[in-house]
Design a protein that fits this description.
With about 500 residues, the protein is an alpha/beta fold. It has 16 helices and 24 strands. The chain is globular, with a radius of gyration of 23 Å. The structure holds malonyl-coenzyme A (MLC) and adenosine monophosphate. InterPro entries: AMP-bd_C, AMP-bd_C_sf, AMP-binding_CS, AMP-dep_synth/lig_dom, ANL_N_sf.
């Protein structure tokens, strides 16, 4: 029996296949019938390009409806989808390509020459291109292919995707996500959020992370619902399109930017069924401001790449600001003592490591059994690295992170990655990268730098030194200089002291 995500989606197709699956604001897009045909053609194209079941297909393209068809076609061909942030530089890409060893790399037409050089260096057999408007070499393989494809059968445990998450130390880790993970999580969301064929979701998220790719697309597909597609989030455009939809999923920055729009009123959202926020903490302040302005309580949920969605505030019931709600159907959650190696349960109300178990939990890190063993316990619980507690009403509250990570506008930034580069720049003795409260991005990436004696590198020097090595969203919004970094007796940099000292930097 085929246990793939696409097979599960097939069980929930709308009776009328002419119903829209995805519509663009100009009226273009794909009905369900067209989606079935196009994803079949993409699957044929991948086979023609030599992609075998189990092969990785690495994709770094701009968001487009066809990129979604490529994702679905990859699953149908039994291959493993490996999406890459479109902001990643060649330095970053060469690691991912070398580590995942995809048989095909799909990139933008503009990047083709560099991609070919990278592919050769990393042993990737083929490169194809896909532009935002159907240009590029991949479409030449897609066009004219049969409208049907015999989907490659997958078991629940077979890989559907690999998504890289940066590590707090050292190398990025490829989270191996199975078809069973995707199916169970999409079903849990359909149940928890009451998604039906009548729903229209405004899709404004990037599609190289689980939020835009799995949460937003798979759950709507699993319910036979429809997507109104836009390339990226623009608050004024999104507000203008709201009358055509009844669901929005976003990161907290979407909601702070919507609040900046005078047109965000009770009337403008009266028809909306649900606003969902996740990927980063939604402040109680934003939750309250949105509720006061519109009368609507945003539904906050909590997830991560390795686990998909874990918890959610209730659809019916109180959505409490500052909490992430209850475990989703099928997900078990416990709080343990982070100081203990063995899982030691903490009493309700006491903050500790959030651990989760369930069919949503990933299969481990690609070719990193030791890393997998460090984070995935023998009994199946995954140590999330998030610190939280369960309050007296049973709601989960996240209070911090044990991992040194910044979340800026919903993107994770690992300080270590920046510090390693900054420390090698001329005139720099050492550095600490921290996240500081930032109205737009939630946390603003900030580099705190100590100059070498007698030297005075400038903010511009540090930024120029990072430019080209790391994606732009990772670059510090500000660089500040200090005489010395505060350290504890063990010599560890006290980042909390730096965060306290500079907490007003973006105020
Ligand atoms: C863009 N920039 C950012 C940024 N996004 N800087 C810091 N943090 C970000 N998130 C920078 C760009 O590099 C550029 O800088 C400048 O801002 C303008 O770029 P832009 O492309 O016009 O930005 P904008 O469209 O305004 O993007 C902001 C955003 C976007 C919030 C709409 O970042 C976004 O869509 N975020 C969603 C991320 C997401 O999907 N996360 C889910 C992860 S999954 P310069 O210097 O080049 O001019 C996950 C699990 C879970 O976490 O639970 O869901
Ligand atoms: P990623 O590794 O990109 O999947 O990011 C996952 C991380 O985002 C989690 O481990 C949390 O730290 C954070 N996160 C996701 N949703 C929320 C939320 N609603 N509140 C606070 N943090 C969140």
């Amino acid at each position: 029996m085929n246990q793939s995500l696409f097979a599960a989606v097939g069980e929930h197709l709308p009776e009328d296949l002419n119903k829209p699956f995805l519509r663009t604001p100009d009226g273009g897009g794909y009905s369900y019938a067209e989606m079935l045909r196009s994803s079949a053609q993409f699957a044929h194209a991948l086979v023609e390009l030599g992609v075998q079941p189990g092969d990785r297909v690495a994709v770094q393209v701009d968001k487009s409806p066809e990129a979604i068809m490529l994702y679905l076609g990859t699953l149908r061909a039994g291959a493993v989808y490996l999406p890459l942030n479109s902001g990643y530089t060649s330095d970053e890409l060469s690691y991912f390509l070398g580590d995942a060893e995809p048989s095909l790399f799909v990139c933008t037409p503009a990047f083709e020459e560099q991609a070919k050089a990278l592919a050769e260096q990393c042993g990737v057999a083929r490169v194809a291109t896909l532009g935002q408007h159907c240009e590029g070499s991949l479409m030449r393989h897609v066009e004219g292919k049969p409208a049907r494809f015999a989907d490659v059968a997958r078991s629940r445990d077979d890989l559907a995707a690999i998504l890289y998450t940066s590590g707090t130390t050292g190398r990025s880790k490829g989270a191996m996500i199975s078809h069973g993970n995707l199916v169970s999580n999409a079903r849990a969301l359909v149940e928890a959020w009451g998604i039906t064929r009548a729903d229209w979701l405004l899709h404004a998220l990037p599609i190289f992370h689980i939020h835009g790719l799995f949460v937003a697309i798979n759950s709507l597909l699993m319910a036979g619902g429809s997507l109104l597609y836009v390339d990226k989030f623009d608050a004024a455009q999104v507000l203008g399109l709201l009358p055509q939809v009844n669901l929005l999923m976003g990161v907290p920055t979407f909601y702070t930017r919507l609040l900046d729009q005078p047109g965000l009123t009770r009337e403008a959202v009266a028809h909306m069924r649900l606003f969902v926020s996740g990927s980063a903490p939604l402040t109680a302040e934003t939750h309250k401001a949105f509720r006061e302005r519109t009368g609507v309580a945003i539904l906050e949920r909590y997830g991560m790449t390795e686990t998909g969605m874990n918890t959610s505030n209730p659809l019916d019931g109180e959505r409490i600001a500052g909490t992430v709600g209850f475990p989703l159907p099928g997900v078990e959650l416990r709080i343990t003592d982070p100081a203990e190696k063995e899982a030691k349960l903490l009493p309700q109300g006491e903050p500790g490591m959030i651990e989760v178990r369930g069919p949503n939990v990933f299969r481990g890190y690609w070719r990193m059994p030791e890393k997998t063993a460090e984070e995935l316990r023998g009994d199946g619980f995954f140590m999330t690295g998030d610190i939280g507690f369960i309050d007296d009403k049973g709601y989960v509250q996240i209070v911090g992170r044990s991992k040194d990570m910044i979340i800026s506008g919903g993107y994770n930034v690992y300080p270590k990655e920046l510090e390693q580069i900054i420390d090698t720049l001329p005139g720099v003795a050492e550095s600490a990268v921290i996240g500081l409260p930032h109205r737009d991005f939630g946390e603003g990436v900030t580099a705190v730098v100590v100059a070498r004696p007698g030297e005075a590198p400038s903010e511009a020097d540090i930024l120029a030194g990072l430019d080209g090595h790391l994606a732009r969203y990772k670059q510090p919004k500000r660089v500040v200089f200090v005489d010395a970094l505060p350290r504890n007796v063990m010599g560890k940099v006290q980042k909390n002291q730096l965060r306290e000292r500079f907490k007003q930097l973006y105020a």
